[in-house]
Amino acid sequence: MSQAAPEVDPRLLEVLVCPVTHGPLEYDRARGELISRSARLAYPIRDGVPVMLPEEARELGEGESAGR
């Protein structure tokens, strides 16, 4: 049995920005991450809560850094 990633409150997504660049974030529902293209980081979402710590983020790969 597979579980869908917990939803993030859309109001929260409207006000969150990248803590490194203060730029916009994109919600990647499939991976459960918030993507900062300018910082090339993906912030995880755990139990519906975005973890906005740069040390917890993963670096985007070459193919991921361009817009989709």
Provide a descriptive summary of the structure in words.
Helices cover 9% and strands 25% of the residues. It is built from one helix and five strands; from the N terminus they run αβββββ. Strands 1, 2, 3, 4 and 5 form a five-stranded antiparallel beta sheet that branches. β1 and β2 form a beta hairpin. It starts with 9 loop residues before the first helix and ends in a 9-residue tail after the last strand.
Q: What is the secondary structure topology, with strand pairs?
A:
Layout: H1 10-15, E1 26-28, E2 33-36, E3 41-46, E4 49-50, E5 58-59
Antiparallel strand pairs: 1-2, 2-3, 3-4, 3-5
Helix content: under 10%
Q: What's the number of extended β-strand segments?
A: 5
Succession of helices and strands: HEEEEE
Principal-axis shape: globular
